[in-house]
């Protein structure tokens, strides 16, 4: 099917499901859309028993969507920038140490914990998954994506310092998680016999540090351009150019595009907004990126729901995936609790910060997209299936209950 036709179907379904959710179901927007798409997937499977042609057409449509490319190459940069421009740099600076620790050391702790536990458990189900591939899964499932929960957390009126920890961590650990995943994937592709710790560390450092540095240059270049004119149409185009051009150039010079866009977004949302924009421009840019964020998240979660149609499942994988949910939650707890217990001697933490940070660490489409890039010979199909199960639980169960948990613990 032509790309335009596929895009048309996706947009129409997103609008219809969004209307149904807002009008009747009234769940948080993106969670409601995803749940309706899951129900639609189940209905397609049921109808397929009666009309196989309809089922084949539906699965061909979904199979024609390159979810990995759509998210990692197109949507991710827009979503990260839209989130980053709303980060208060002053508040972030106060929470910078825990944010950096959670998004670096925390990711590494989680990756190693998940890999170790999965390696041990998988054997019991007849899956001998090499440890390096367990590390791959650990790297892709560790980045948190609390987009679905942030609105609920705000409604629950949690302390702003805890909110900035969660939002800041989610933005930075998306970038760090992608870099760590790519590094491990290159090691796995080259073979452990060709593994060089120095080369792996250099690759990680080049991508991460280079991404942050390039993002700063990108952000200040955008600031100069925005400050030099006063035309909200052109200035909105400049922010789009920062995202698209910056992400493309980052890939060409082999630095982390996600980290570059996050840093550029923070500079744009703070210095450029404060010193380089008029009130009219500020209003238009804020509204534009809010719309981009809402639309792309709606499309993303619709696609996550429909991915169920094309993923391989069996009873063994469902059970292994269910156990992996517990594994990832345990690893998330360790990745939060260890840094908090170390850092609390230097800085105060909110009451019940550990359980809220643990349960608020929601996995999302980024994890599914990275899983889909793993070759079949690296247990790609198995990893995709268990990743999908963990992500569904995370978005639906954790996403719908984090607000209630935050309110309960606040009493």
What does this structure look like?
- With 411 residues, this protein is an all-alpha fold.
- The protein has 18 helices and no strands.
- It has helices at 3-25, 29-50, 52-63, 67-84, 89-94, 96-103, 105-124, 131-141, 147-155, 160-190, 197-227, 232-252, 257-275, 279-306, 315-343, 353-359, 365-372, 380-410.
- The longest helix is centred in the middle third of the chain and has 31 residues, at 160-190.
- Number of H- or I-type helical stretches: 18
Helical coverage, percent range: over 70%
In percent, how much strand structure appears in the residues? under 5%
How many runs of DSSP E, i.e. beta strands? Answer: 0
Could you spell the SSE succession in H and E letters?
A: HHHHHHHHHHHHHHHHHH
Distance linking N and C termini: 54 Å
The computed structural class is mainly alpha
Overall outline: globular
What is the overall pLDDT average? 90
Biggest β-sheet, characterized? none
**Alpha-carbon Rg, integer:** 21 Å
| Low-confidence regions | none
Question: Could you name the key traits of this structure?
Answer:
globular, single chain, 411 residues, mainly alpha
Could you give a quick summary of the protein structure above?
81% of the residues lie in helices and 0% in strands.
Topology:
Elements: H1 3-25, H2 29-50, H3 52-63, H4 67-84, H5 89-94, H6 96-103, H7 105-124, H8 131-141, H9 147-155, H10 160-190, H11 197-227, H12 232-252, H13 257-275, H14 279-306, H15 315-343, H16 353-359, H17 365-372, H18 380-410
Helix pairs in contact: 1-2, 1-14, 2-3, 2-14, 4-12, 4-13, 4-14, 4-17, 6-10, 7-8, 7-15, 8-10, 9-10, 9-18, 10-11, 10-13, 11-12, 11-13, 12-13, 12-14, 15-16, 15-18, 17-18
């Amino acid at each position: 099917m032509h790309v335009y036709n596929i895009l048309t179907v996706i947009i129409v379904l997103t609008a219809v499901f969004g209307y149904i959710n807002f009008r009747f179901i009234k769940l948080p927007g993106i969670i409601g859309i995803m749940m309706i798409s899951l129900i639609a997937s189940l209905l397609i499977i049921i109808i397929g028993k009666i009309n196989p042609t309809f089922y084949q057409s539906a699965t061909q449509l979904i199979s024609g969507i390159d979810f990995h490319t759509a998210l990692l190459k197109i949507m991710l940069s827009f979503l990260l920038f839209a989130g980053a421009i709303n980060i208060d740099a002053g508040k972030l600076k106060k929470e910078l140490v825990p944010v950096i620790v959670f998004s670096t050391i925390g990711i590494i702790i989680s990756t190693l914990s998940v890999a170790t536990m999965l390696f041990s458990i998988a054997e019991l189900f007849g899956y001998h998954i090499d440890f390096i591939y367990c590390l791959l899964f650990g790297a892709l499932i560790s980045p948190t994506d609390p987009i679905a929960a942030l609105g609920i957390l705000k409604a629950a009126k949690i302390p702003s310092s805890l909110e900035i920890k969660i939002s800041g961590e989610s933005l930075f650990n998306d970038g760090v998680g992608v870099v760590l995943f790519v590094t491990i994937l290159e090691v796995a592709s080259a073979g452990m016999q060709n593994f060089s710790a120095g080369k792996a560390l250099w690759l990680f450092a080049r991508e991460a540090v280079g991404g942050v540095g390039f993002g700063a240059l990108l952000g200040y270049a955008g600031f100069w351009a925005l400050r030099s004119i006063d035309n909200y149409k052109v200035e909105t185009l400049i922010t789009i150019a920062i995202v698209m051009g910056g992400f493309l150039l980052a890939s060409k010079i082999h630095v982390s595009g996600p980290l570059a866009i996050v840093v550029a977004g923070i500079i744009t949302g703070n210095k450029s907004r404060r010193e380089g924009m008029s009130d009219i421009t500020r209003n238009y840019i804020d509204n534009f990126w809010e719309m981009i964020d809402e639309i792309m998240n709606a499309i993303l979660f619709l696609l996550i729901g429909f991915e169920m149609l094309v993923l391989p499942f069996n009873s063994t994988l469902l059970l292994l995936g269910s156990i992996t949910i517990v594994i990832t939650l345990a690893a998330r707890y360790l990745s939060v609790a260890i840094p908090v217990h170390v850092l609390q001697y230097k800085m105060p933490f909110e009451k019940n910060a550990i359980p809220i940070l643990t349960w608020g660490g929601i996995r999302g489409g980024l994890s599914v997209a990275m899983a889909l890039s793993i070759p079949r010979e690296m247990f790609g199909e198995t990893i995709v299936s268990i990743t999908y199960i963990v992500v569904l639980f995370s978005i639906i169960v954790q996403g719908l209950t984090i607000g209630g948990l935050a309110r309960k613990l606040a009493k």
